[in-house]
Structures are given as C-alpha cells and as structure tokens.
Design brief:
mainly alpha, 2 strands, sodium:proton antiporter activity, transmembrane helix, NaCa_Exmemb, A middle domain of Talin 1, 1% strand, transmembrane
C-alpha cells in the first residue's frame, strides 16, 4: 500500500483504504512491541514501546513540516501538546477507569510515577510554556539559543529519567506486587528467535505507519478544512494516530490489574514525545523556513496547569479510584472540545 500511494494524490476512497491498512499496521506494531516487552521485562518493556511510538511521531512531524511550509509552523507544538493531553489525561483516565471498574481500587508505586510526572511537567514548561513569555523574539517563538537550550535540556532530562528508570531505581517503576517480591510477570516469555523477528517486524510496521500517515495526511487536512475545523486539529489527529499503540497496550495492562505498566506507558510516552521531538525539531530547523511556533496560548496553558495539578493529586497517594479516572477523562474531553471549538 505504501509503495502504491507514496508521492501520489490520494482520493477519498483510497484514503479510506489507506486508513484501514494504517490501523492494521498500528496493531502490528503493538503486537511486536509487546513481544519485545515481554522478553526484556519491565520497565524496559514500557520504554521500548514509548520510544518506538515517539520515533513515529518525530518522523511524521518533521516530514510534514519540511513539506508543508508556513501553515505547519505550529504543527510541532500542537502535536506535542496533544500528546501530553492524550497521555496524561486520556490514557491515564481510561486505564484508571478500566482498572477501578474491575478492581475498585488500583495501586502503583508513587515514587516512580511521581518522578515521571515531575519530569513531564518540567519538560512541558521549558519547551511549550516559556516560549510564550520570552522577549528575544516577538510572538510565541524561541530564538535559536533558546531552542538549543530547550533541546539540550530535553535530552538531558529524558536521558536522566531513563537511567533512573532502568538502572538506579528500577524497582520504583515495577508494579507493587513485583517490587515487593522481586519477581516480574512474564506472559509466555517469547524465545530469542521470536523476539528477534518481532524487532525486525516492529521496524517494518513503524515505517509503514509513518509512511501511510504521511500519505493520508493531505486527505485529513482537506477533510478538516471542509468541516471548518481549525488547523491545530491536524496535530491532534496525528497524536491520536501515533499514540494508538500506547493506548491499546495501556488498556490491556489495566485490564490485567497492571496499572503501574499503564502509567509507565502513558507518562513515558509524554516524556519521550517532548524529550525527543523538541531536539529533532531544533535540528530540522536548519531546513525549515519561517518561524517555529512553540509557545502555548492562554487556553492551553490553563489546561497544562490543570493537568499537572490533577495528575499530582492522583499520583501522591499511590492508589486511585474511579473518581480520579473520571476527572482525567473530563479534562481530556475539555481539551478535545476546545481543539474543535477554540
């Protein structure tokens, strides 16, 4: 399908077919990422899927910005902020609702999730909030020096978090029952041969997702324009597409009462989305023409602040009920409503 539509205009009928193949490719990516995750165990498994999904997002944003001109100057900001809202409110909310409906109260390690949330809050503030108030350049844009600092800080914080998650304090990111016993859940641990084949097929699926999403994006933009929706909705659609694997994996983990894994996936994806996208955009700025809009508007700043506050109150106790899940989903619904009707 990718070879048939690459570089060609896609009609509405063909776009539907591309969308179906794109969905299948996403499901394939989820399957193979989960095989690799089961082989390496937690928290490495969550990290594998988070990085894989972020590679899709970064490649898609850069490709669209290079080919889209001035109309895509805010695409990186819109997509990254949408990813933060989807992960910290949408995925977290869905996982908490599913977990609490089945098990009434869900528990997780507040130390690890709190550290992840703090890192996400710092990354989002430095990369998306501060450019709104800087004065070196007019408007919500960053100067080359400020963008370079944001890129270096993003990579440094993300690298420090990965070190903490996988080496120095790995037990903080394991489900409480695993951290207490020193054991980890391995569901039919795959063989080395199967893991290697899944790594190869995961790469193939990711290439398919990136390519097909880019091919169908003009049809999505045309449909949104015909519906009279704002340009920033394109960023929301991209984030929804690339985070579909994370959402499915988080829902499966929550259904198995592994809410720690769901939260690792959600916050890890938010962190990777900022920590890897901003440096990539900074490097791509060499080829991009025109200003790069990164600063959030007043409405989104309020939503970001509300998200951090609500997530903090959810994380601190180390356990959650249906109410917390409902609050996160309500904030996510507000984000979608304001994206459609600002």
């Amino acid at each position: 399908m990718l070879s048939l539509v690459w570089g060609r205009a896609v009609s509405p009928a063909v776009a539907i077919g591309v969308g179906v193949v794109l969905a299948v490719s996403v499901l394939a990516a989820v399957h193979h990422a989960e095989v690799v995750s089961h082989r390496v165990g937690e928290p490495f498994g969550s990290l594998v899927l988070a990085v894989a999904v972020t590679v899709i997002e970064v490649a898609l944003i850069v490709a669209l910005m290079i080919s889209g001109g001035r109309k895509t100057e805010s695409l990186a900001r819109d997509t990254v902020f949408a990813a933060v809202m989807i992960t910290c409110n949408g995925i977290v909310g869905i996982a908490l609702v599913i977990g609490t409906v089945r098990h009434r109260v869900v528990t997780f390690n507040a130390e690890g999730i709190g550290a992840a949330l703090a890192t996400v809050a710092a990354l989002a503030t430095l990369s998306l909030a501060l450019p709104t108030f800087t004065t070196t350049r007019p408007g919500p844009t960053a100067s080359p020096g400020q963008l370079a600092f944001a890129a270096v800080a993003s990579l440094a914080l993300y690298g420090l978090f990965v070190l903490t998650q996988t080496v120095r304090h790995r037990d903080y990111f394991l489900p409480p029952q695993d951290a207490a016993t020193g054991a980890e859940e391995h569901l039919a641990r795959p063989s080395a041969r199967r893991t290697l084949s899944s790594i190869v097929l995961l790469l193939v699926a990711l290439v398919a997702v990136v390519g097909l999403a880019k091919a169908v994006s003009p049809a999505i933009e045309s449909a949104l324009a015909a519906a009279g929706l704002p340009q920033k909705v394109v960023g929301v659609v991209i984030a929804l597409l690339v985070l579909l694997p994370e959402t499915i994996a988080a829902v499966r983990a929550a259904y198995r009462d592994r809410i720690q894994i769901s939260l690792n996936l959600a916050l890890g994806s938010a962190m990777a989305s900022i920590g890897l996208t901003i440096p990539a955009i900074a490097m791509a700025g060499i080829w991009l023409s025109g200003p790069l809009v990164l600063g959030l508007g007043p409405t989104h700043l309020i939503l970001l602040g509300l998200t951090v506050a609500v997530a903090t109150l959810t994380v601190v106790p180390g356990r959650a009920t249906l109410l917390q899940g409902g609050v996160h989903l309500t904030v996510f619904a507000a984000f979608l409503a304001l994206a459609i009707s600002p």
